[in-house]
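User: Let's play a game. I give you a shape written as tokens, and you guess the letters that built it. Ready? Here's round one.
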């Protein structure tokens, strides 16, 4: 395969990408041409908030072609277009054959939560010392166990001495990893909810693959009080959700919040103060876990 690399300003990225598609590119990807430099721009907003910008100032557009001839033809046709005056051809190179499946899989190794509790992709054998294992492959929904916020929630679950017979709510379930982790530690009545239907579907599939029973649904599916409410979202939605999440915690139950940066601890404490006294109970890589007993 051959890779054609171009530089395009923000307002031409879509035009160039569509032209490459029409010229039989097998795939087109767009990267920030200023990544890792002082000019790098963040494009991701928090859920419910608009992104700060629609596109990067300068993008590197990379198109993959089946043959060198197709790649050269596409480059020549693009260079002949008026709009291309503001773009630049960066180069054309052969892409060495790779076993892409194996390469992707090699990037996901088993993740240790505690010495006995592991997240293990299906293409790996669980480590010998693992007593509880969640089998999970990377998919469309967030939550493979590689992010510190997920790991801290799972560590909290694993180090509480069991959740036997407890009712648990995983609010913002993503892949369902926290709900499945709770089930593996004895919880029996589990609701896992998310605003993203793809996450709800993933949670159901992952629960089945782990032999775990839970109810996955949209947020309206959460009902009543729970012994444990877990929510790994982000600071802004967590603040908005404060009354709703606290209303779901049974008296004496636990609230566990993640997706919060160290510097956001005080604003979270203030938002939850009318309902619960949040404390920082774990931290990893600048992220904190905040918990409260109601
Ligand atoms: C960071 S992921 C966490 C996934 C998983 N629980 C974990 O710990 O790895 C956050 C999830 O919350 C969902 N989410 C965001 N805002 C939400 C809201 N207001 N109500 C319910 N789910 C929400 C997102 O769709 C996403 O799947």
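Assistant: Ready! My guess for every position:
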């Amino acid at each position: 395969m051959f890779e054609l690399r171009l530089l395009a300003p923000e307002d031409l990225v879509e035009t160039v990408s569509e032209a490459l598609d029409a010229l039989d590119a097998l795939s087109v990807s767009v990267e920030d041409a200023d990544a890792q430099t002082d000019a790098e721009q963040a494009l991701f907003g928090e859920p419910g908030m608009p992104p700060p910008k629609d596109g990067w100032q300068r993008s590197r557009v990379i198109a993959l072609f089946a043959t060198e001839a197709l790649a050269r033809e596409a480059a020549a046709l693009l260079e002949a277009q008026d709009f291309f005056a503001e773009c630049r051809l960066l180069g054309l190179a052969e892409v060495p054959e790779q076993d892409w499946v194996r390469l992707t899989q090699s990037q996901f190794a088993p993740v240790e939560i505690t010495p006995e509790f592991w997240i293990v992709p299906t293409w790996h054998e669980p480590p010998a010392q693992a007593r509880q294992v969640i089998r999970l492959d990377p998919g469309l929904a967030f939550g493979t166990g590689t992010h510190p916020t997920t790991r801290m929630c799972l560590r909290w679950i694993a180090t509480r001495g069991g959740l036997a017979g407890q009712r648990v709510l995983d609010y913002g379930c993503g892949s369902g990893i926290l709900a499945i982790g709770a089930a593996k530690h004895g919880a029996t009545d589990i609701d896992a909810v998310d605003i993203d239907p793809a996450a709800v579907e993933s949670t159901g599939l992952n629960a089945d693959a782990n032999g775990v029973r839970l109810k996955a649904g949209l947020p309206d599916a959460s009902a009543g009080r729970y012994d444990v409410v877990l929510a790994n979202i982000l600071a802004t939605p967590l603040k908005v959700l404060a009354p709703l999440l606290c209303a779901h915690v049974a008296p004496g139950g636990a609230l566990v919040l993640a997706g919060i940066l160290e510097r956001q601890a005080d604003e979270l404490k203030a938002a939850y103060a009318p309902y619960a006294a949040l404390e920082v109970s774990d931290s990893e890589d600048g992220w904190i876990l905040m918990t409260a007993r109601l």
